[in-house]
Amino acid sequence: MSPTAFVMTTAATTYKSKINVTLLIFVTLCLVVLPVLPLLTGTATASEIWFIAIYCPLAIAFEAYIYTSTHYTISGDTLTVKSLLLCEKIKINDITLIKHTHTWLSAPALSLNRIELRYKRSRAIVISPRDESRFIAQLRAVNPTIEIH
After folding, report:
1. Digit-coded pLDDT (tens) for 102-143
2. What is the pLDDT of residue 23?
3. Regarding beta strands 78-83 and 86-91, do their DSSP bridges make them parallel or antiparallel, or are they unpaired?
4. How far apart are alpha carbons 146 and 149 in whole angstroms?
5. CA gap 134, 6 in Å, rounded
6. C-beta separation of 98 from 77 below 8 A
7. What is the DSSP letter of 113?
C-alpha cells in the first residue's frame, strides 16, 4: 500500500470592513447632499434637476456597493483584499509588519480605525477588518514572524 499524501486545507475566512459612521456621513455629504443643494435652495434649473434625478440614485448605488463589497479574505497562505475595482492578493509570509493607523489616505478601509500591512519590503496596504484581533491572530498563525506596532 502506497503512502497517501494528505493536504490540509483551511476554509477561507472573510472579514468585512469596519464602518465608521463619521466617514459614512462625510462621504454621503460629498456624493449626494452637496450636488442636491441647488434643488434644496430652489435655484436649480431644469437641466440641473434632470442631472440630480439621474446622478443621485447612481451615487447612492455606488456608495452602497463600496460599503457592501469591501472585505478581506484569508485562505491558506494568501490574503485577498477586495474593494470596488481593487483585488490585491498578498502572500501572508511576505507580511513583515502590522501597524495601527488613523490615516485619511485613500484605502480599501471604511473606517479610520485602520491597520497598515507592510509586505515585500517596500509595499503597504491599509485596511480595517471588523474583528481586528482575530484577523491579526489568523495572519500570525500562518506567519508568526509578523511584527505588531
Report:
1. 998 889 999 999 999 999 989 999 999 999 999 999 999 999
2. 85
3. antiparallel
4. 10
5. 27
6. no
7. S
